[in-house]
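Box 3.1 A note on notation
Throughout this textbook, protein chains are presented in two layers. The first layer is the amino acid sequence; the second is a token string describing backbone geometry. Keep the layers aligned when reading.
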Amino acid sequence: MQKEGYLIIDIGTGNVRVAITDSAGTVLEIARDDVHYVMDDPELGAMHFDPAALWQQISHLTKTVLNAVPAIQILAITCSSQREGVVLINKAGEAVIGFPNHDHRGRKIEGALSQKAAELIYAKAGRFPGSLFSAFKVVAWQREFPEAFKDIDKMVSISDWAQYELTGVLGYEHAQASETLVYSVGEQSWSRELCDLLDFPFDLLPALRPSGAELGAVKPALSAAWGLSGGAVVLVGGADTQLALKSTQPALGDIAVVSGTTTPIVMVSDQFLTDPYQRTWSNRHVVEDQFILEANAGVTGLNYQRLKEIFYPNESYDIIAAELKEIEASLLDGGSQWPAPVTASLGSLIAKERDALTTGGFTFHVPVSDTLSRAQFIWAALWDIACCIKENLDVLCEVVPYDKDYIWGCSGGMQSQLLRQFVADLTGKEIWLRSRHTQASVIGGAIICSEVLGNRDFEDTAIEKTLPQKDGRYEIYYKQWKTVREKMQRAYIEAK
């Protein structure tokens, strides 16, 4: 008997994934590949990607998963992607260039705004303006290539671009629109006022579409090339953080840590909340009439992945976990290993800091000890992530007090039992995980398909809990980490 299921395209910062789930949300097959970027200006941090090349990767991955699960009827397709990334579409309807979330070409122009303008942007767009956000990327490219820009017709998020390639229908999902700086989060609409402040062409903005809206069928030629059976409908997906959050099935007021390439710490709300000190972001959720309040720890998971490639290029994460367990055992013994032998500060973000660190490193006693091991550097990187989660959670709870005894966790970083324990002990909160937390944005997309199609089989009631322990070491390690980070921050500011 033919199974029914969903196809989810998930374009992250580090890799692109295509997955098939059954109608109950079980991942049946997943294929992935690295996303390739072209560095335009290393000093500025300007980079782009080729949409045509990325679409070829998506097509290949889609064929791969469909061939692996031949006895399935795809009922719905949706897309998820990194936030702040955009694709420019020309007047002929072709994707010209893509800017990822970590493209910072907007640094050329971000300092030109007055304080009054920046405060107005925060009040409407829910975030302090900076080069991370989409409008700055596009305006900077427009100023650098004015002739090429004359042929540009529309800007879309990366997930909305993928849905456009599937159907030929343009649109911009609300959670993704939150990342542009030209969207009024409270009013749920594009803002001409914000466009004027940023010198951004209002006509570049397509119609807004809610997550879950039906875009239509897959283009016939594409459906034939992929071997899709008829009847699959394309639904609007959305931003990967919001879809990952949706996978935890949180209640209003819950907080979740989305530990992926970056690590947003987010609270679900039915109100548009802002911080009088402008430390947090306020976004639309992919759930109608819901918002999320966010403090973001920055590029954490990507750092961890790169360190694995350096220290453990040919070993699995199971090997890392085993060696980390030995490190923990040695630290429990105290002695020469007390306090932590290596401390890291790897540029992770803290919401109360206005200047993001672009330099970082490890500190340890010198002369270099012959007892230093690669696992100690990985341990320090995990501890850095956990400390930044704690700091950002503290900021979030200053804006909106949080008295629940748990926080949700999801995405790949939460596979690390040690990271979960670190966060539980530092925050004093239980860490709750759904059984399918590792593929959170994929599962969030599957939930959207399930809800739209009226499928009631989607259940995930099992919760794994990591409880805080009374471990006196961690207070010492936390103070040690704060001292190292503050010194690195001072050195960075003095060097600017």
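The chain has two domains: 3-236, 248-496. The chain has a mean pLDDT of 90.
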